[in-house]
Amino acid sequence: MSGELPTLTRELPGCGGVFKATPEDFVVEEIPAYEPSGEADCEHLFLWIEKRGRSTQDVAKALARHCGMQEKDVSWAGLKDRQAVTRQYLCAPARYVEPKLATFALEGVTVLRTARHRNKLKGGHLRGNRFELVVRGVTDQAVAKEVLARLVRLGIPNFFGEQRFGVGGDNAEKGKRILQAGGRHRDRFERKLFLSAYQSDLFNRVLARRLEGGTFATALQGDVLKKNLTGGEFICAEPAVDQPRVDSLEVSPTGPLFGPEMRRPEGVVDALEEAVLTEEGITRELFVAGGNETMGARRLLRIAMELESAEAEGDVLRLKFSLPAGSYATVLLRELLKD
Q1: Residue 141, Ramachandran bin (φ over 0: left; ψ between -120 and 50: alpha; else beta)
Q2: How much of the chain, in percent, has pLDDT values that exceed 70?
Q3: From CA 9, how far away is CA 176, in angstroms rounded?
Q4: Which of 74, 210, 222, 277 could form a disulfide with 60, with the two C-beta atoms 3.0–4.6 Å apart?
Q5: CA-based diameter of the chain, in Å?
Q6: Average per-residue pLDDT in the chain?
Q7: Mean pLDDT across the stretch 296-322?
Q8: How far is CA 140 from CA 131, 261, 318, 319, in A?
């Protein structure tokens, strides 16, 4: 349902304009969870790379091939967009990479620095991403300013972006069929991808209802609230007490990534989430079939945006901001452009 998602600022028009006329209009820099130690006797090598027109997997495969490794020997914290200028860490065994790194060449890719570390870099080992976006041909800078002010004050809807659902947009439906088949699928990578997409789609459906119902930034009785900084969760027993903390972006309501380990809300919130499952014709118990891929969790319905700057120059809008890991800059663009 990614194309049908509502926006927080839906009563405001789009600001007009075009995004990503060139790769340089979309710059993404990973904010690592930690920096490599640089100790010489460590076995893993971290490579801080800059790439243009290449996916993270493209670079990893080329590096593995050049250095005589298996593709699984190369790891990263998060995938980065192909059609952008991006900077991130890759990680691989130093014994393979260091002897051959000087002759590694791939168009659009530069290794900016390297350092050793004692542990392998794993998926999710990042705090977030820093973005520099350029929107060209803006027709209403005042509207853009109003949209940004509201997103800073209330938070950005934490929808999963369209890229989560595949080129054809059918990854979620494939995940649903895997669950209905008892969790069986021939390819382990695809199984994980499709099951995650289905969890993501259900989360988006719940978030869309909260947004349309005006409770996106409201503490409801029975909500599972989460502390934005530490991730601590608790049930909302007294909305009047918790609402000031929601207003200050200290805590936020959460939505479901369904699975047996997910903390279940209570009351009207539980009923809303149950209604989404009922419409899908599935039950919570079905997610047990997904095993480790669908254990379940609570995900923030909104995320705080750290807006560093918003500069209007004629019909050009330049934005610099940071988002936590797992969130999508495309959601911000949908709020601005309404397309």
Answers
A1: alpha
A2: 99
A3: 31
A4: 74
A5: 63
A6: 95
A7: 96
A8: 22, 46, 14, 15
Matching residue, tokens 């069986």: 184
The span from the CA of 326 to the CA of 156, in Å, is: 13
**Structure token digits, residue 277:** 């499952």
The token pair at 199 is 């969890």
- Say how far apart CA 206 and CA 211 lie, in whole Å: 9
Catalytic amino acids? Answer: 81
Residue range(s) defining the domain that contains residue 7: 1-29+133-155+306-339
- 99 Cβ contact partners less than 8 Å away, ≥ 6 residues apart: none
- Please tell me whether residue 211 adopts helix, strand or coil conformation: helix
Token reading at 163: 């890229």
**Element spanning 177, H or E:** helix 171-180
What average pLDDT does the segment 134-158 reach?
96
Q: What is the pLDDT of residue 2?
A: 45
- 297 plus 311 within the same structural domain: no
Residue 296 sits in the same domain as residue 315 = no
Separation of alpha carbons 206 and 255, rounded Å = 7
pLDDT at 229 over 90: no
Other C-beta atoms closer than 10 Å to the C-beta of 17 total: 22
